[in-house]
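The aim of this short unit is practical: by the end, you should be able to scan a pair of folded records and say something sensible about each. We start with the first protein, listed as its amino acid sequence and then its structure tokens.
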Amino acid sequence: MPHIHKITVYPIKSLDGTDVPQAKITENGSLYLDRAFVLKNVSGRTVNAKKYPFLQKVRANYDLEAQEVKLKVNDQEAHFQLMEENVQIARFFSDYLGEQIRMETDFRAGFPDDDQNSGPTIVSTRTFEELQGWFPGLSLDNLRQRFRANIELGNCPEPFWEDRLFAHPGVNRRFQLGTVEVIGKQPCARCPVPTRNPLSGVGNQDFMREFIAKRRKTLPSFANEAQFDHFYRLCVNTIIPPSEAGKEIKLEDFLSDSH
């Protein structure tokens, strides 16, 4: 049976993620601390890697038990208390980006990429292994950093097995991760970020074109093609119902049909 192989949360939106052995479900159905912090400019717009490619040059290393983050870019390095030093973290990014930045927090809902489907994104290890064949030279970790999924499934028999986790448009596909009920909604539409080197922000103009061509050609027969208005989609968007708030998912939890 497929099971949870990796759980990754991204505490500061658009920065590096950190692997965790378990994660609590928030009131909004997200994973606790996933995108719980967001950077914004003076206009109130989110500062993310879509519009600020050089943000990808910033390395973030977290110690969640100590509630600390170490930020490093070029020859600058600084340690911060993640929960208490938002102003200082914002100043670090203001200096780096050359404009006034502030940091906001939301531990109840976070700042998901998809407000309508705020649950964790899901992919399988077999899918990343297939993508390695599409893009020789990219490691599994490089692909993980590009596509930034929250949950990676192990023991899947075929690439894109996660495409089984959504149905027709407008139809919910319910399943369990351990004791947590999850609703699969659709394949995740991707932004420009996966086309870039995740450590430098430098883009590859051919990546999207090659990905789309291969995704169209290899779309599994079990994937509902009606969900693909375009083929620049990977991972599954989900919703977790409010009834599941406070429960936890953990490594090695099995995926099964909903009870």
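Turning to the second protein, read its sequence before its tokens, just as you did above.
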Amino acid sequence: MSDGRVNQKARTRTAILDAAVDLLREGQQVTVPAVADHARVSAATAYRYFASADDLAHEAALELLDFVASLEVVTTAIDDAGDDVDARLEALLRTLGWRMLNEQLPFRQLAKAGLEQWFAQQQHAPDNETPVRKGRRDSYTRRVLEPARASMTTADYERLVCALNVGWGTEAMISLIDINQLEPAAALEVMLATCRWILHGALSEASLR
């Protein structure tokens, strides 16, 4: 295949993906015909690059997530908070946590894709299953807790990581918004309070031991 043909295919794929990101950002449903129309290509062409609307929506959500939740922005905010674990936790939640609450669409799309992957994997043998969700949340939580790591046993530290991973993130956002019917600003304060209770309780227990 010539370089020109390869470049054209890459441009077409990018145009289709950009169109899907635009629809997600506008709050519209991502379907292959809608994306194809937005990208000004035929639906048949779009299907050559993406096998299904779910595949297309999932990749578009990842693209939008990179825009909404820049790794560098979040990690810089955490590190700028110094060694105070409380301040580092607040920095995480007021950057990425707030974006989850204020710009929910890509996070909900990834949660949807994760659930669909889980159901699909129930048809496979256990040793053929792959992780449903990437551990982005876990890596952020561990970065927050770095200054406290040396003062805790491995068991206490790992338990705290797991507990905080429940206290914030997409599932916490969905619970606060859908079940508790909170506005994003109020939901953020509850998320912050919940994570602080978890953090302070764990650190207190660890110091007693």
